[in-house]
């Protein structure tokens, strides 16, 4: 039986965790409610938790944007193809680094880790992409920002946790390193692969800064860049239209909230299915050599 002190500690922990959960969830609920509320209700501050004067005019405006579906397709392409390529190069880097027999392993690990704290910077990176002829190309987005050093070490830590006996048994049966990686390490690394893949996918989906700088062709820009342009344009249009139309069911604020919801729906739908692997995979980084 728990003592009164233990019960009080549990109550405090649950209360604090519950408060943090409410703080995290409330902004999303507010944005969702504001996006389907009338502009008057939002501007007057009547929307606090639940929507007022429900309308979907803001969503109609966002979805009627001519390039919205092209941008959605581009974002899906960058996310799927980019994540697969990122996973490929991450595995190719992490697997050799997990082997003690790799000559110069400490040297390579140090210089890879060095890039976590020091990098070339924005201007040198841009000039590098320019000299390689990758400006305004999809390749620049997929290949140019394909790898995260932190995630390489996450994968390496998991590969190191696989018992050496499995690899030794496979070698006795005549398997080479590629077969061992494909048939033993990757199947056993499902939690790590999903965790790392989720990190990459979310980063790709939310990719905005470099896409805005590198891409000029409207047919190649991802959703995040288009939504930024839409929000900015709507702010200007609304200011111009205020004196002419006072009955509009949407405003710049409601459009902004609607674009936020539109941009995060896919990640919200996917994340619950991957959460159990994500929780397990985030513990991998605690494994030490």
Automatic annotation (TrEMBL):
Database matches in Pfam families: BPD_transp_1 (PF00528)
Keyword terms, alphabetized: Cell membrane, Membrane, Transmembrane, Transmembrane helix, Transport
ABC transmembrane type-1 domain span: 72-268
UniProt entry tagged with the keyword Transport: yes
Record's bilayer topology term: Multi-pass membrane protein
Transmembrane feature ranges: 12-32, 76-95, 107-127, 139-159, 180-202, 255-274
Locations listed in the record: Cell membrane
Domain of life: Bacteria
InterPro entries on file: MetI-like, MetI-like_sf
Family: Belongs to the binding-protein-dependent transport system permease family.
Protein name: Carbohydrate ABC transporter permease
Gene source species: Metabacillus bambusae
């Amino acid at each position: 039986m728990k003592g009164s002190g233990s019960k009080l500690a549990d109550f405090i922990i649950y209360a604090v965790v519950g408060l943090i959960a409410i703080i995290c969830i409330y902004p999303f609920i507010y944005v969702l409610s504001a996006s389907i509320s009338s502009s008057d209700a939002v501007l007057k501050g009547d929307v606090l938790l639940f929507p007022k004067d429900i309308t979907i005019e803001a969503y109609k405006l966002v979805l009627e944007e001519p390039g919205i579906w092209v941008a959605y397709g581009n974002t899906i392409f960058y996310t799927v193809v980019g994540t697969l390529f990122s996973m490929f190069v991450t595995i190719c880097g992490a697997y050799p680094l997990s082997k003690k027999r790799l000559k110069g392993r400490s040297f390579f690990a140090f210089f890879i880790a060095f890039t976590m704290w020091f990098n070339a910077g924005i201007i040198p990176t841009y000039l590098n992409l320019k000299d390689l002829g990758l400006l305004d190309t999809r390749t620049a987005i997929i290949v140019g920002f394909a790898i995260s050093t932190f995630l390489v070490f996450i994968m390496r830590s998991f590969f190191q946790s696989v018992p050496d006996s499995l690899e030794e048994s496979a070698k006795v049966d005549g398997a080479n390193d590629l077969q061992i990686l494909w048939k033993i390490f990757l199947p056993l690394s499902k939690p790590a692969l999903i965790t790392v893949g989720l990190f990459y996918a979310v980063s790709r989906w939310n990719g905005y800064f470099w896409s805005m700088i590198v891409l000029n062709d409207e047919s190649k820009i991802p959703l995040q860049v288009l939504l930024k342009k839409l929000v900015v344009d709507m702010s200007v249009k609304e200011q111009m239209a205020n004196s002419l139309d006072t009955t509009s069911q949407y405003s710049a604020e409601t459009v902004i909230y609607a674009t936020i919801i539109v941009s995060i729906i896919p990640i919200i739908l996917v994340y619950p299915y991957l959460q159990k692997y994500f929780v397990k995979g985030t513990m991998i980084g605690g494994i030490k050599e």
